[in-house]
User: What shape does this take?
Amino acid sequence: FLQEPDRKLTFRARAMLTITHRVHKVYEKVMPRVARQRRYGSYSANKQQNSGNAMRIGIDAHILNGKAQGSRTWLLNVLRAMGSIDRSNTYVIYSLSVAETQPLLSDAPFEHRSVGKRGAVSRLLVDLPLAAVRDRLDVLLVNYLGPPLSPCRQAVVIHDVLFESCPRMFPDRK
Assistant: This one.
């Protein structure tokens, strides 16, 4: 979409592009090996460790900490179901508070990590990419926005886009 100058970008898209361009050089200094191997799926340590079919799946679960909402309920139910039916893959849950999240998923065999205590920008630009490298993830599941520069593949879940299709329903959104 960058090659279409007449196409109007939303504020979020412009902001993410700006952040991506500014953080690119810092990212290469912080994680030079990952930056050199940025082709998604080429992170060789993952392939050596997971030579079978098992995957290491990271899940950005920061929405589990805070007020109850639809996306929180959806993620909680998906995680509980996956924990009971899938024993071959390893799931790493990234939340704001491990002490708060772990009891919600006590029956499931998940690894829990704390990320994003410094805010959303830090979580997306620094914490999650570093965690993906540290935990040797094959894929990272995120809600709405993922790290613009990620060392692994991402699955981005967009629960709804009602604010884009019916902006009149969200008058205070600017």
Strands lie at 56-60, 90-95, 111-114, 139-143, 153-157. Helices lie at 11-30, 32-36, 44-49, 70-85, 98-101, 120-134, 162-165. The two ends are 22 Å apart (CA to CA). The chain has seven helices and five strands.
